[in-house]
Amino acid sequence: MSFKRSLLNTAVGIGFAAGLASVTAAETITIATVNNGDMIRMQGYTNQFTAETGIDVEWVTLEENVLRQRVTTDITTKGGQFDIMTIGMYETPIWGAQGWLVPLDDLSAEYDVADILPAMAGGLSYEGTLYAAPFYGESSMIMYRTDLMEAAGLEMPDAPTWEYIGQAARAMTDRDNEIYGICLRGKAGWGENMAFLTATSNAFGARWFDEEWNAQFDSEAWANTLNFYVDLLNEAGPPGASNNGFNENLSLFQQGKCGMWIDATVAASFVTNPNDSAVADKVGFALAPDNGLGPRSNWLWAWALAIPAGTNNEAEAKQFIEWATGKAYIELVAANEGWANVPPGARTSLYENPNYQAVPFAKMTLDSILSANPLNPTVDPVPYVGVQFAAIPEFSGIATEVGQEFSAALAGQQTVEAALAKAQAITTDAMEAAGY
Q1: Are the C-beta atoms of 206 and 222 separated by less than 8 Å?
Q2: What is the set of domains in the chain, with CATH numbers?
């Protein structure tokens, strides 16, 4: 399949040309975005963009699963509801290849496209052309309570194994005091529990498909992955874990109820912010766990801004993208809220800045991003690109259904064996119907 081969050969280098024309007439652009903290923060500064440009901004802010559904429906039906969409590394190359996105190949010299981290630029490009600009980039890592680790008589390695994490989680759990050794995503969704579980499965030697596109949920490696996860959360996780996604676990951690949380590196600024986190001065960081097989359990992602083809406000949308994902916005947030709160993971210059190098989680975030390998994510070879997803159009639908089965297993509504059997059938049927 030539499309998949072209994805495998996506180039990192991005061309750009100077001279984005300024917009003088007052316009209104509509932006769909996710309800994560960094996006909420950006909305608070939007009046400055309007003051500078005369362009008004209307926001449609949605929960992660709802956002993905809304923007996918809008772009596939040419609904035209949005001038800018917040999407990620899964959608961007697929939609770019379909001609559904405006190429970002004429951003200004001042914007400095070459400063975007290669891992981010590569994942947001198709055949060497950038189709979305990263607002922030992330991998995943362990955030943990240093005081609870010490009380348990343990010391977190910089690069722990899953066996160690399991032992530590159980040792830190104190249910009588609502302290749970580990918080992990359980909410169903291809970008919620399946992002975490797919990345985790890489470290267990599992994969979604073999080289002939055959589903692999009937493998021992997937059974080991899901059994470990369900047992760990049942023994050391919070009640109702099957309902918890990124934001729910963030709240639990900030309340001091999680000994460890393995999730997006972007959360580091929120768990260490004393205005929001009761444990801000007791947080340490480590690489996502491995099993000694090579891959770690960390993903690679960017929440990025893209322009759907057909918008009547392309020039205005590009102005906003340059403003929100450029160097000046980082300086704006740093000046008002401190360097720890700037959008991370998108620009090389940020990690070369001594002010940011002093942030306690900066190095671990960058190390996590650089250690993720979307071209070779698994122990055994695979025909797809992606660490926590397979970059094929069918993946989101399949993984949404599989995520529901795995969430049901976590909730005790079915056995792990039943969930894996259903996942195998769902995936096999969908791939056969798609002609693989």
Answers
A1: yes
A2: 2-138+300-359 (3.40.190.10), 140-298+380-433 (3.40.190.10)
